[in-house]
Design goal:
- With 225 residues, the chain is mainly alpha-helical.
- The chain has two domains: 43 residues; 173 residues, no CATH class.
- The protein has six helices and seven strands, in the order H-H-E-E-E-E-H-E-H-H-E-E-H.
- Helix 4 packs antiparallel against helix 5.
């Protein structure tokens, strides 16, 4: 009887020691080590790839955001949002919204439409979006052709939160942004070129332009005007 009790006690004590050691190793030492390595080698990415402007965080380079004008009637839920044409516009998305803390940066949902390419509702939506893109990007002496509108200007990404647009969509917006901000077309085009990233490792993905980073740079440029 005493031997049985002693054996049980030893097993319980061994189990408690194992729990204590594993808790310290897996719950304290390992997380601290991983956090330390991440902060030392990948500080920007470990902290959310934050972008700052005027001394405050305005968003993440990994998640897109909207650039919309205030509603004419804030109490009307059916009023369609209108783009603020002073800024480069992102891909269409239902995953981006606003809040009272930072009206340019809030997530509502993430996901794709899951509609097939021959879905009539999707075709009508894309056709309407293309007409809007052409109309919005008219500038003095310039009217985009429908064939100039790239696919990412009228379709959302799989997540609906894509922070990037194609160089072609950025180029389509250059004249309008320049005109709305009183800048030269060449100035704005150079800004786009400076914020165009090439394929990852030279062969993965496509060239892209981060809209938030581009608009932060645009804001800095307009301060001197």
């Amino acid at each position: 009887m005493n031997t049985s009790v002693r054996n049980t006690g030893r097993l319980i004590a061994a189990g408690l020691r194992a729990v204590l050691v594993l808790t310290i190793v897996c719950g304290v030492i390992y997380p601290l080590a991983v956090t330390g390595v991440a902060q030392a080698l990948f500080n920007d990415k470990a902290n959310g790839s934050e972008i700052t402007a005027d001394g405050k965080v305005v968003g993440s380079s990994l998640i897109g955001q909207t650039y919309l004008l205030p509603k004419k009637n804030p109490d009307d839920p059916d009023e369609a949002p209108r783009p603020d044409l002073r800024w480069f516009q992102p891909r269409p998305s239902n995953g981006l919204g606003s809040n009272s803390v930072n009206t340019q940066y809030s997530l509502i949902l993430s996901g794709a439409t899951n509609r097939a390419g021959n879905n009539k509702e999707l075709i009508d939506w894309v056709t309407s979006a293309k007409r809007a893109v052409v109309e919005d990007n008219k500038a003095s002496g310039y009217t985009p052709r429908p064939s100039d509108v790239p696919p990412d200007a009228v379709t959302s990404s799989g997540s609906g939160l894509d922070p990037d647009i194609s160089p072609a969509y950025a180029e389509l917006q250059v004249r309008r942004v320049a005109e709305k901000n009183g800048l030269g077309v060449d100035q704005v085009r150079k800004l786009v070129e400076d914020h165009t990233s090439d394929r990852i490792l030279g062969f993965i993905g496509e060239p892209r332009v981060n809209v938030l980073e581009l608009n932060v740079a645009l804001k800095e440029l307009t301060k001197g005007q």
